[in-house]
Amino acid sequence: DAGITQSPRHKVTETGTPVTLRCHQTENHRYMYWYRQDPGHGLRLIHYSYGVKDTDKGEVSDGYSVSRSKTEDFLLTLESATSSQTSVYFCAISPRQDGSPLHFGNGTRLTVT
Amino acid sequence: KQEVTQIPAALSVPEGENLVLNCSFTDSAIYNLQWFRQDPGKGLTSLLLIQSSQREQTSGRLNASLDKSSGRSTLYIAASQPGDSATYLCAALQGGSEKLVFGKGMKLTVNP
């Protein structure tokens, strides 16, 4: 898995609670990404980071925030979870922007009740 | 807006067949095209990446081609095996963008 660890692997939470997902890499890659995967929608980019403290929005960023205080960690926070955020969340990493292959973690299955 | 389509959504074949998986995209201004494999409950594994200046890439029994002018990429799997059973996704990276646009995938089942 190219040295990517996502935690937790599964989480059930209630509507309105904050949730933080963690992605940890041991590859020292510069680029890190958060995607969500949903039936009928495929994979969609939430946020990405191109360096420590450097982040930008993807196509479905509403309701999510991210932080990257160290090269190896990229956190995804749902400020107030909603049922529409029930999904499988994947972290991915890449060494550079010029189209190197993305390496994915094994995902976090989040259920918001 | 880039759209990536994979048809059919599912395919079931007997072992040993040579397979062609199709991927089409609407905007030819791509930087590269990537093929991934996803096993149930797992993340995506990168199979092949074709830069926009390339026509094809090969890895073992896999060969991917790219035709930007027609907006198509194909993944060829030779002598399919039951272990090839998985969902295969293609994704196009727009030039100057971090946005990798994914197709919805094709679920392949190779029967012994």
List keywords for this structure.
heterodimer; A: 113 residues; mainly beta; four-stranded antiparallel beta sheet; globular; B: 112 residues; five-stranded antiparallel beta sheet
Description:
- The complex is a heterodimer of chains A (113) and B (112).
- Chain A is globular.
- Chain A is built from no helices and eleven strands.
- With 113 residues, chain A is mainly β.
- In chain B, strand 6 (56-59) and strand 7 (62-67) form a beta hairpin.
- Chain B has strands at 4-5, 10-14, 19-25, 30-38, 44-51, 56-59, 62-67, 72-77, 86-94, 100-102, 106-111.
- The A-B interface holds A 1, 4, 31, 33, 40-45, 48, 50, 56, 58-59, 90, 92, 97-107 and B 31-32, 34, 36, 41-46, 49, 51, 89, 91, 93, 98-100, 102-105.
Alpha plus pi helix count of chain B: 0
Query: N-to-C SSE series of chain A?
Result: EEEEEEEEEEE
Low-confidence residue ranges of chain A: none
Assign an overall shape of chain A: globular
Structural class of chain A: mainly beta
Tally of DSSP β-strands of chain A: 11
H/E series of chain B:
EEEEEEEEEEE
Q: How would you sum up the global shape of chain B?
A: globular
Q: Could you tell me the mean pLDDT of chain A?
A: 93
SS element count, helices of chain A: 0
Unreliable stretches covering 5 or more consecutive residues of chain B: none
The beta-strand count of chain B equals: 11
How far apart the termini of chain B lie comes to: 41 Å
How much of the sequence of chain B is in beta strands? Answer: over 45%
Helical content of chain A stands at: under 10%
Largest sheet data of chain B: 6 strands, mixed
Structural class of chain B: mainly beta
Percent range of helical residues of chain B: under 10%
Report the biggest beta sheet of chain A as strand number plus sense, adding barrel if it closes. 7 strands, mixed
Mean pLDDT of chain B: 94
Q: Which chain pair shows the most residues in contact?
A: A-B, 28 and 22 residues
